[in-house]
């Protein structure tokens, strides 16, 4: 029989557990935190005077008509969320192959932004710049004869769309299209229009990801055939190429660089954080959110703990701010803590 009654202490200089022995010491040594100031709530907007329409694949998220949108943003502001990213769901009847409605001066989305800015002026409005809500094929730009997205023509359209969004009241325009040269072209157009104060948050490293599924559902950009955006979005295998894209966007005048998705690309966030002085944003995308919700609904994960851990990891990797569908829920928890 081995006598286990007495264990002499190990001769250790370092016992890392000392720094973890109670909640107070753990709080002192904590390296990353999620604060409401870091969070951006994405919101889906629809036309008309109807009611909020729940999005099945994004539990807890809805498409909001402008009145509900204003109420939601007011509630978010009270919770300390001071930035929202807005995405329109455009009616199928207004879509065509060229996304013409995007540049229509009567585009209802512009008036929604105007109303939101007037009602809640202190909350930052971030508006996505891409044609996918407007094209009937769901691509982010117009197609050339071969069926690929035409780079320069798309950029030209997007510069005007970005200026119109800024004119309507968007504080930050966020090109998500991944065309070459769009940041510089949009900066030029904004400046030409006297919109020098409008910021650009570049979707600098946006990957051709399987995790955008629920979003495409939410904005109704899901085409019949599976959408392949790999001639413009990044190959998920490529870190160096992501850093090159980010450098180009920085050189062309981006104010904030974004990595998207977030949780599967923590190495990209960390490398970018080390390689730029600009603020780094990360977009925890719809599929990341849906995944946690689905597992929680099945009873396989604790929703709040999995949510908090997923966001903490993104902060730890080096993101200064996170676009996340969890923003409101986290702010509510932080308020009550
Ligand atoms: C549009 C756009 C997409 C997302 C944000 N802007 C979808 C796509 O590129 O197909 C995805 C966001 C999410 O999944 O939450 N260019």
Structure description:
- The structure is a single chain.
- Strand 2 (53-54) and strand 3 form a beta hairpin.
- The protein is built from 11 helices and 10 strands.
- The protein is α/β, with parallel strands linked by helices.
- Helix 2 runs parallel beside helix 3.
- The chain has an 8-stranded parallel beta barrel, surrounded by 9 helices.
- The longest helix is centred in the middle third of the chain and has 18 residues, at 151-168.
- The radius of gyration is 22 Å and the shape is globular.
- The protein has a single domain (34-336), classed as Alpha-Beta Barrel (TIM Barrel), CATH 3.20.20.70.
- It is 38% helix and 16% strand.
Summarize the structure in short.
The protein has 337 residues and is α/β, with parallel strands linked by helices.
Key traits:
337 residues, alpha/beta, TIM Barrel, 8-stranded parallel β-barrel, globular, binds ligand PBG
Task: Give the SSE layout.
Blueprint: H1 23-29, E1 39-46, E2 53-54, E3 62-65, H2 66-78, E4 83-89, H3 108-119, E5 124-129, H4 151-168, E6 172-175, H5 182-192, E7 199-206, H6 213-219, H7 240-251, E8 256-260, H8 266-275, E9 280-284, H9 286-297, H10 303-317, E10 321-324, H11 327-336
Parallel strand pairs: 1-3, 1-4, 1-10, 4-5, 5-6, 6-7, 7-8, 8-9, 9-10
Antiparallel strand pairs: 2-3
Helix pairs in contact: 2-3, 4-5
The chain binds ligand PBG.
Ligand PBG is lined by residues 128, 130, 132, 140, 176, 212, 215-216, 285-286.
